[in-house]
Write a structure and sequence with these properties.
single chain; 228 residues; mainly beta; SH3 type barrels; OB fold (Dihydrolipoamide Acetyltransferase, E2P); 4 domains; 7-stranded antiparallel sheet; flat; disordered N terminus
Length: 228
């Protein structure tokens, strides 16, 4: 926000003119400026991105997918698939382009994944050694990339661990696949390979059991062979 707007807002908030104060806030909102209040930031629906955490119907949801839609002469809309971070259930919701969304303001801490206990997954803060648990339903989409002793970013909302922020790529070992073809270098011909977390991906024919490969966490696809 521009300094002049901040000063003006400060003056109005301390003046006896509540109507002017309300009109001023409304004016700034129409200009597309963001306001932070009680752990949220108001953003236009058109700024929704995959992986973003928003507050919808009073509960935290993660954006699983989104698509901008412009049906004929109608105003633009944003079609979304949202996952409830408390229940794990997914819903579809269509926002109007002029709608404003509550984006949750998160804190992020580096943590180490330690172990699984039933449907609970334990993570330890690498600085304070404090341990927190996340439910399987909450992080189910990240499990194919999660292995013990992996350091990963964990999102917190109002002091509560709510989600995992995966890196763009992870390195995983191949535990099962057809024998590699020696001397082969082509990457167009592929075969299935099972990785140490149970994830199955298509890999080039020269990849063999015991190889460590780099996988894209956004689409679960092979990128390259990594060093062991």
């Amino acid at each position: 926000m521009h300094v002049s707007n901040v000063n003006a807002l400060s003056n109005l908030s301390t003046s006896p003119g509540p109507i002017l104060h309300t009109l001023f806030l409304h004016s700034l909102c129409l200009q597309g400026l963001e306001f932070l209040e009680e752990g949220t930031t108001m953003i236009p629906a058109t700024q929704i991105k995959k992986g973003m955490i928003i507050i919808h119907n009073g509960e935290l949801h993660q954006v699983v997918s989104f698509q901008h839609v412009t049906p004929g002469n109608w105003r633009g809309m944003v079609q979304t698939k949202l996952r409830n971070l408390k229940t794990g259930s997914t819903i579809e919701n269509r926002f109007r382009s002029e709608d404003r969304i509550d984006r949750a303001t998160l804190e992020q801490h580096e943590m180490e994944y330690l172990y699984q206990d039933g449907d609970q997954f334990c993570f330890m803060n690498t600085e304070t050694y404090e341990q927190v648990f996340l439910n399987k339903d909450t992080i189910e989409e990240t499990l194919p990339f999660l292995k013990p002793n992996t350091k990963i970013a964990v999102d917190f909302y109002e002091g509560q661990a709510i989600n995992i922020d995966l890196p763009m790529t992870v390195d995983l070992e191949v535990v099962e696949t057809e024998p590699g073809i020696k001397g082969a270098t082509a990457t167009r011909t592929t075969k299935p390979a099972t990785l140490e977390t149970g994830l199955v991906v298509q890999v080039p024919v020269f990849i063999d059991r015991g190889d460590v490969i780099r996988v894209d966490t956004s689409d679960k696809k092979y990128i390259e062979r990594a060093n062991k």
